[in-house]
Design a protein that fits this description.
Radius of gyration: 14 Å
Order of helices and strands: EEHEHHEHEHEEEEH
Low-confidence stretches: none
Largest sheet: 7 strands, mixed
Structural class: alpha+beta
Helix content: 25-40%
Distance between the termini: 24 Å
Strand content: 25-35%
Number of strands: 9
Shape: globular
Length: 160
C-alpha cells in the first residue's frame, strides 16, 4: 500500500551518497524533528530526472527553505556511486541529500515501487514528492507513468 498523508515514515537504514563514499543514514536521523522534502526519481541520469526534476529542486532550494524546509533529499533505486556521480554531474554539492536505495527496500516500504523489468530497468522508484514533518507524511504526490506534473519543486512549494 502506498504511503499516505498522516503515516509515519518507515524505519529503515538508508544509504547516503557522499564524496567520501556510501554512508548509512537512518530514516530517524533524516526525518526526525525536521521538515523534509523527499523526491523520488526512476533513475539517476535519466532524461526527465536530469533535465527537469533535479534542476527544479536546485533552482527552488531557497524558496523551499524559506517555507520552513530543513532538508531536501533525492532518492533513486541506484547505488551510492551512481547517485554521487549524478550529484556531481548536476552540481548538487551538499545542497540535496542523495539517497541510494539500491535494493529498493525503502521504496517498497513506502509502497512506491514500479516494475520496469520489461524495459530492462528492473524495479524502480515511482516519480514522487513527499513532505514530512517530524517523521510524519504531510503531503505525498505520485506521478502517473511518464508524467511530470505533481512531483516538481513548484508542486512541493505549493503543498507547503
Amino acid at each position: 500500500m502506498t504511503i499516505q498523508t498522516g503515516d509515519s515514515i518507515p524505519a529503515q537504514t538508508l544509504t547516503q551518497a557522499t564524496a567520501e563514499g556510501p554512508r548509512e543514514l537512518s530514516t530517524e536521523a533524516l526525518f526526525g524533528g525536521k521538515t523534509v522534502v523527499l523526491f523520488g526519481v526512476p533513475g539517476a541520469f535519466t532524461p526527465t530526472c536530469s533535465a527537469r526534476h533535479m534542476p527544479g529542486f536546485l533552482q527552488n532550494l531557497e524558496s523551499l527553505k524559506a517555507k520552513g524546509v530543513d532538508t531536501v533529499a533525492c532518492m533513486a533505486v541506484n547505488d551510492a556511486f551512481v547517485m554521487h556521480a549524478w550529484a556531481k554531474d548536476q552540481g548538487v554539492e551538499d545542497r540535496v541529500v542523495m539517497i541510494a536505495d539500491g535494493a529498493a527496500a525503502f521504496t517498497r516500504a513506502l509502497g512506491l515501487e514500479f516494475d520496469l523489468t520489461a524495459r530492462g530497468l528492473g524495479v524502480r522508484c515511482q516519480r514522487f514528492v513527499l513532505v514530512a514533518k517530524d517523521g510524519k507524511v504531510a503531503h505525498v504526490a505520485v506521478e502517473a507513468p511518464g508524467a511530470f506534473e505533481v512531483s516538481s519543486a513548484e508542486a512541493a512549494l505549493a503543498a507547503l
